[in-house]
Amino acid sequence: MGRRTSGIGIALVTVATLVGASACGAGGSDKASGTDAKASGKASASASPTPTKPAGPPMLLDTITPQTGTTVGVAMPISVIFTNPVAEKARATVEKHMKVSASQPVAGAWHWMGDRRADWRPKTFWPSGTKVKIDADLKGVSNGNGRYGVHGYTHTFTIGDDVRADVSVTGHTMKVTRNGKLVRTLSINAGSAQYPTWDGTMAVIDKQEKVHMTSCSVGISCDKGSPNYYDLTLPWDVHLTQSGTYVHYSTGDPYPGSGSARGSHGCVHLSMADAKWFYGQIKQGDPITITGSPRGNAPADNGYADFNLSWSQWLAGSGAGEQTTATL
User: Fold this and answer.
1) 3-state secondary structure of 14
2) d(CA 286, CA 207)
3) pTM
4) Cβ(91)–Cβ(315) under 8 Å?
């Protein structure tokens, strides 16, 4: 099974996942392109073009993530995907028309992942319990390439409990905390020397009870005779990167830990019982931080790995710079 795809909502903002490679692996695309990112929700505010504006074809949003009304983790960015490229000269103006409000003041900024995706993240993780709203009032706003906004979009969401997972590749452990308190330490196996796991902090993209995974879909092997070939449907899958990193159970590594030390093709393996338990604890936007892998940090746009950029690196990709949220 290859990459999962679905239709693109043109004017509406449509589920909150980045759709990527449906397998563990070091292959495949490292980036989440605008056309790959699928979010859900509805545009809760819209307007028709005025008689004089826009002067050209419409500038529309493909998606806004998170989905309106959801509860997400402390590392979840606001991710906006445009249907057409936004010119660099227009980005500061566009950012200023995408107002972020919160129930408690948070410093943050927009950052452009190419010319169609803009993410807003706080300088540090969101405080648990914060209510957040984005008002993308883009009516009449130019994208710098001859297109003008014709809609306003509003999404609201809530930051839930501060749930984190810290994975040690060399220690074969995952420590799960909730609101600063250790809940459980789990045994894991991560990627092999040939197919190492991404390091860094990755916010959960989504989760599924079962995912069909193939080595061919991530460029590892399409040869059924290869020892690295696999075609499996595996349970309790927590999705970390666009390029195919999951935390899940694997039939090929049923009892992970330092005793077995069997490397994966880039995913983090848990036992069946632990994978089911972890699946029940985790939600979109919860940070999974992996250390000890030789591969290095996942690129920021490989899913929602926004916190793999330092604050200075983040601001370097912003048009309008640091801002404090308006009061919600």
Assistant:
1) coil
2) 11
3) 0.85
4) no
